[in-house]
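Re: the request from the purification team.
They wanted to know what the chain is likely to look like in 3D before they choose a buffer screen. I agreed to run a prediction and write the result into the notebook, where they can find it.
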Amino acid sequence: MSDTFSTIEQRASYGIGLQMGQQLASQPFDGLDISAVQAGLAAAFNREASAVSNKDLEEAFNVINQRMQKAQEEQAEAAQAEGVNFLAENAKRDEVTVTESGLQYEVLTQGEDGDKPTVDSTVRTHYHGTFINGEVFDSSVARDQPAEFPVSGVIAGWTEALQLMTPGTKLKLFVPSQLAYGEQGAGGSIPPHCTLIFEVELLAIL
């Protein structure tokens, strides 16, 4: 590959193509045609007339956007139903406590008696977050770097749970989507309506 792109200009040009390809791959649609993308790119760069009329381009964009929106809605509905079913079954376990808000938690380690954080506190924690299928989406444990934040500055499920803990306590939280990131999700990492699982250890109240 390095022999094919031997000059600085060729390598930089290839890098631009890689970046554009990565952007396309992050939000693809069914039927995406890379050869058509390349043709459109070349036409625009060479200032050539478009091979597709503006009307047809607009229609195509509208149809694809509608398809993608429908697919996202279907995924969100499926995630919501999956979360509801998971929580209903999980609540049957003896070791799980369900609070009035719908938060579920399991005590993994009980800390010593002492002060508990309030909504105005700042805390230091270690945590490990997964989807209900076990896929990890965030983990201070994996980074080996505890996280510090105000109790009021996190998702509602965490705000509630932290106020139940003394330093040294470790809980496993099962957080319904409405106590997490809800219908909006969180960027590209957490889709809408996802139930989340966290193992949270309260290290200190700061």
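For the purification team: The mean pLDDT is 93.
Please add any questions underneath this entry.
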